[in-house]
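Example 147.
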Amino acid sequence: MPTIYILNGPNLNLLGQRQPEIYGSTTLADIERACIELGADLGMDIRFFQSNHEGVIVDTIHEARLQANAIIINPGALTHTSVAILDALNTFDAPVIEVHISNIHKRESFRHHSYVSLRAEGVIAGLGTNGYLLALRHLAPLVGAAR
Ligand code: CA2
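Predicted structure in complex with CA2:
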């Protein structure tokens, strides 16, 4: 069964607890459950991660090189700063989809640039937590999921 790594960056562990006007009231645990459920329906094994530390995210991308058929990544604020995450993703030889809960283009100008977008096959921004599920539906045929 194809394996999809879903990586989440700094502060996303606080989803649903602060700033619901920007990020909604869904928690990261809710997103993980919904992704695992949809993954099961589509025939994909979902591995869901969150870290507040850039190096841990880089290490997890390295692990994904050996384990994953695709990556969905919401790098949080590291989207706008991290060449290290871009370099790590450039070593990964399968699809990468970048997801943002908010529409980063509607926000402060420093959020308009993404290093990760230089590598991502596609970017979903501003569709709330549904973005993760839409990314999974997009990936299913690409990774040869059974259903
Ligand atoms: O819209 C997104 O998904 C972001 O990646 C979220 C990042 C932000 O830095 C990016 O520009 C866009 C921030 C995640 C912080 O999440 C929080 C959740 C609840 C309360 C506070 C922060």
